[in-house]
Design brief:
With 237 residues, this protein is an alpha/beta fold. The protein has eleven helices and six strands.
């Protein structure tokens, strides 16, 4: 998220002339497991207070799986906690979460059946699948890359994603979630996979960017990042 969002907003700035600043507060995590994910959730309010000091317009809660590990619909409560923390600090802001952005953006694209790629161990991927399906979106296939070290996830090569996407069971799919994780790099592969498969390709990062821009009242105009961010969103069925 700390690399792909600035790049996406750089492209948006080049296309529209809008100027954006990017601020971050971090909650530490080394191993992607339920215990460390739960600890991250406990730090969300402190991080929100810290970043709200910059008087930001939108706060994005980046860790998708930390929210989803809390159970179905948890993004609603997480977004509320962050909004209240920022407001309590005297700097209210709109709030989106990557978990909420993903499950809201897929239906906005007209996607009710998807195939997904995650870097997680299989039990966490199953949990993500259940969370998405609880929102009324059928997951036709889910690939786990079985990487539990958080830094190693951030160093995965996006050049491998087209081959992984080709192996997904996609019959009847409306979209592909190429990275159901904000830590796993995927931006470099999004447009290539979308062009090759002929399906909309979404990632946790592109969905979050879409919702940030929507909260700002800005129309996405980002090239080479999939149809979600290319311009006015239509749902051709």
């Amino acid at each position: 998220m700390e690399t792909e969002l600035p790049e996406l907003f750089r492209r948006q700035s080049a296309a529209t002339g809008h100027v954006y600043t990017f601020h971050a507060a971090r909650a530490a995590m080394r191993t992607v497991n339920r215990e460390e994910l739960a600890a991250m959730v406990g730090k969300a309010a402190d991080c929100a207070r810290s970043v709200s000091d910059a008087q930001v317009d939108v706060i994005a809660y980046a860790c998708l799986v930390a929210v989803m590990a809390q159970g179905a619909g948890a993004h609603t409560g997480s977004e509320k906690v962050i909004a209240e923390a920022a407001e309590g600090n005297g700097h209210p802001a709109a709030v989106v979460s990557s978990a909420g952005a993903l499950v809201r953006t897929l239906p906005a694209l007209g996607a009710r059946r998807v195939a997904i790629v995650t870097p997680y161990m299989a039990p966490l991927t199953a949990m993500v699948r259940e969370y998405i399906e609880a929102e009324g979106i059928e997951v036709l296939d889910a690939v786990s890359l079985e990487v539990d070290d958080n830094l190693a996830v951030g160093r995965l090569d996006p050049a491998a994603l087209p081959g992984i996407a080709r192996g997904l069971r996609r019959e009847g799919a409306d979209a592909v979630v190429l990275s159901a994780c904000v830590q796993m790099p995927s931006l470099a592969a999004v447009q290539r996979v979308e062009d090759e498969l002929g399906l909309p390709v979404v990632t946790a990062a592109t969905a979050t960017t879409y919702e940030i821009l929507t909260a700002l009242g800005h129309q996405p105009a980002i090239p080479d990042a999939g149809r979600l961010l290319a311009g006015p969103l239509t749902t051709a069925r």
